[in-house]
Amino acid sequence: MKTTFAFTGRTRQGERISGKRRAASVEDAVAALRREQILVTAIDRVERNAPGADWFRRSRAVSPRSLAVFTRQFAVMIDAGLPLVQCLDVLAKQEEDGRFAATIRAVRADVEAGATLADALRAHPRSFDRLYASMVEAGEAGGVLDAILERLAVHIEKQVVLGGQVRSAMMYPVAVLSIAAIVVGVILWKVIPTFATLFEGLGAVLPLPTRLVIAAGDSFAAAVPLLGLGAVGTALLFRRYYSTTGGRRAVDGAALRAPLVGGIVRRNAVARFCRTLSALLGAGVPILDSLDITAGTAGNAVVEDAVMKTRAAIERGESVAVPLRETQVFPAMVTQMIAVGETTGALDSMLAKVADFYEEEVDRDVAGMTALLEPAVVAVLGIVVGGIVVAMYLPVFDLIGQLAG
């Protein structure tokens, strides 16, 4: 009986492609797509659900933190000599996330039915990406599954820490700006109309700053829905543009060139590339497959294109460092360290050292940017709120001066 599979992949020209195919198994679907010269990066069975339930299922994936804990515990159990099915059964029972627990039970059922662990994981790409499945496959083939799972746990944990640093750095300015927007909105909505009525009753001549603030307060109620619709429309248009190949390359390229944050984005992408490639090569995954997987997890279209160009050059017989240098995306230090790693035969460990270095750089950059943002945000908040207060008290000062005269 044939099943419908949803897939994403790349053509020989490196273009992204997605769609659906009907086949008897995942292997048959992948083989059919390979005959069409499509390299599959992710494939999953399409389950027949209600539209709302299907959207909810796709919208939720296992959190990296939960995946790291699962992988760490899995490695310990395998190292202790527990059978694979028993490990999965124990992990499913103790998993607090019900949806992830159901995924683990499905993996256990596939393994019990005779599938390899890697194939069972590939059936759930929302929880276990291609990097995860490929490293597990290498661990199964080499009989070092516990060591590979340990490597995976370290890799995921480092990604969680790196992402957490960036998010925590942005949390403070976003929170302060949100509070400032609420405060200014309340002032314009409630306070300014009261002052406007008072000034109108006194017949005071209002200076220009006061008139501007009162006009903003009068139009605030009508402007809020328009601003909300504009924000939603802009977000939808941006999302649509970013979903195109050209749009994603343009936006990701602009992010790499942006002042202040561009350096952090680039170093974060380099650290992610080096960490992922190091984990794959250390697990024994072939270099071409490793680069293909790394490109898919780069998180930046410009870096992804550079990795794919490097892969094509290696396929022609070149080294890793030279084509990476020619892309002009990776810093010179990265390509030099990779060249040394190739020469000494320790490319995976050299990549790990480069990843450690750039992760520390990202940490320092984020801390420095946070130190700059905090006073800047406070200053902006003070200028806006203070400007409104001064504008509303200018007529009061004029009236006091007239009375005193």
Description:
A three-stranded antiparallel sheet has the order 2-1-3. By secondary structure, it is mainly alpha-helical. The protein has helices spanning 26-35, 51-59, 64-79, 84-94, 98-112, 117-122, 130-142, 145-202, 208-242, 245-257, 261-282, 287-296, 301-315, 321-326, 332-344, 347-404, and strands spanning 3-10, 16-23, 39-45. 77% of the residues lie in helices and 6% in strands. The model is unreliable at 48-59 (pLDDT under 50). α3 runs antiparallel to α4, α8 packs antiparallel against α9 and α15 packs antiparallel against α16 (347-404). The protein has three domains: 3-59; 64-128, Receptor-associated Protein (Up-down Bundle), CATH 1.20.81.30; 145-405, Type II secretion system (T2SS), domain F (Receptor-associated Protein), CATH 1.20.81.
Give the amount of beta strand, in percent.
5-15%
The helix tally amounts to 16
**Could you state the oligomeric state of the chains shown?**
single chain
- Overall pLDDT score: 81
CATH C-level class of the largest domain is Mainly Alpha
| Topology order in helix (H) and strand (E) letters | EEHEHHHHHHHHHHHHHHH
The CATH topology of the largest domain is what?
Receptor-associated Protein
User: How many DSSP E strands?
Assistant: 3
